[in-house]
What we know:
Layout: E1 5-9, E2 15-19, H1 20-24, E3 28-33, E4 38-41, H2 43-49, H3 53-56, H4 61-65, H5 71-82, E5 93-99, E6 105-117, E7 120-129, H6 131-152, H7 156-171, E8 175-182, E9 187-195, E10 208-210, H8 214-222, E11 226-228, H9 240-245, E12 251-257, E13 262-269, H10 278-343, H11 346-377, E14 385-388, H12 389-406, E15 410-414, E16 420-423, H13 425-441, E17 448-455, E18 461-468, H14 489-493, H15 502-512, E19 516-519, E20 527-534
Parallel strand pairs: 15-17
Antiparallel strand pairs: 1-2, 3-4, 3-7, 5-6, 6-7, 8-9, 8-13, 9-10, 11-12, 12-13, 14-16, 17-18, 18-20, 19-20
Bound molecules: adenosine-5'-diphosphate.
Amino acid sequence: MxxxxxxxxxxxxxxxxxxxxxxAALEAYFAFDRHGRVLAWNPAAETTFGYTHAQACGxxxxxxxxxxxxxxxxxxxxxxxxxxxxxxxxxRRLQWFVRHADGHxxxxxxxxxxxxxxxxxxxHAFAHDVTSAHRASRFxxxxxxxxxGLAEAASSDTAGAHVVTALGAxxxxxxxxxxxxxxxxxxxxxxxxYARSGLRLGDFVxxxxxxxxxxxxxxxxEATTCxxxxxxxxPGYLRARAAGRIGLHVAIGVPLCNGVHTLGAxxxxxxxxxxxxxxxxxxxxxxxxxxxxxxxxxxxxxxAIELARTKDEFLxxxxxxxxxxxxxxxxxxxxxxxxxxxxxxxxPLRSLQAITRNAERLSVMAEDLLDLARLESGHLAxxxxxxxxxxxxxxxxxxxxxxxxxxxLTLTVRLPRRLDLHGDPVRLRQVADNLLGNAIKYTxxxxxxxxxxxxxxxxxTVTWTVADTGIGIPAAERPRLFRRFYRASTALQQRIxxxxxxxxxxxxxxxxxxxxxxxxxxxGPGTTFLVRLPATT
Length: 537
Ligand code: ADP
């Protein structure tokens, strides 16, 4: 049975019979004669190109869908077809950029065939919009451009600019914006904006938004993707009118997250009405995640730079504001003490002794702070030479002798005659003083302190231990021991003075020697520190 036909009257061009199946087809179908005059235009062509059947029939196909810049080539193609040649398009499946009635341009996939009718040759075109597929294929280019842009960006600002430009230029969005949350000011600020060349944004431009307002505000507040098919029919949006004035319709916003917080929103605006589309959403989501991670990493780096600067300032502050005045006080107090001792004045002498003691404590603290800051910021380098660790430990033990004796501690030392390693003798002595000083300080009178050092079985590593029978460190607190200013509860309960800096400095020094320092397993009361250092072999 022949398929039913629909008679389509096309102005003066005459009649062209269109089968009913083409009226129902999802594919846009149109036909034109050898002069380019439209003879048929099905409902799918109406939706695809934006002209009604009545508006299209009888008009030149060139005027309807061909982009101005493609018209000379289009005319040449039509002339070839009219002359009976197959041109570039006849019998082939090709992609073209065409123009919609509202002026926006988009890609279609089209096939062109011809039939010879009594009225002459007719060309039949079948087309469908391939915007989504086209976008997906270009997303690889966007991702490459974004990755390169992020790698080359000198700051977060330039990184944002790279991303919006890559999205706008490669995917042909007229406007792309990157909004970031300014937590201090409780605002959103526009960190980067791309606008298609020649597009005058006018009052569409906003640089700040209250949280929760506008598309970016909503995306950030709800931390979810938001797709507005047509801003012009969604007047609830802050910039809907301004968008209308510059022909923007669809608006899509995706949140930038770091896994915990929403850092901002990436928003694209298009010049046509578009319904939500999964592929585009997941591609934009992937890009937003990449940018979110980058911004987070960058923020951490910028903070670290800021911190390093603060450390330098801190170093200068401790030197000038703390160390120098304390040294002056200590010197003056010592002088006065000597003078008062000669005069035999008991009370003022005791006060002065207290001043000297406390000034010395402050002085130790200032030196420790300076050492730590210098070591960590690289201002103080380790100067290794061929060193005998046994001699260094021996000197520290000798120096600590009077303090150990004052507390009636049994000080046992087991050292080889020599222990060669490549190290900084001044800094290693500092470690020896700290470990031994702590052992004596945190061991009540009558206890024992044992220092040992030697090569391990491999002959490659020096093992150095400082053990005591003192107040110990509760097991639960041990992981925190090497943190700055950390003091164990046992030391605090007994009110034994200290700064909580010595071990951090010791660890930094040992690590600079490619060694390790840790608390060793300890049987009975007390504490054992274990240091390992590479030996000179
Ligand atoms: P400081 O002794 O000046 O407080 P350190 O960094 O040398 O600073 O030590 C940090 C903390 O570790 C001390 O406050 C103390 O609580 C604990 N500690 C260190 N050595 C010992 C030890 N031998 N016995 C018990 N506690 C110790």
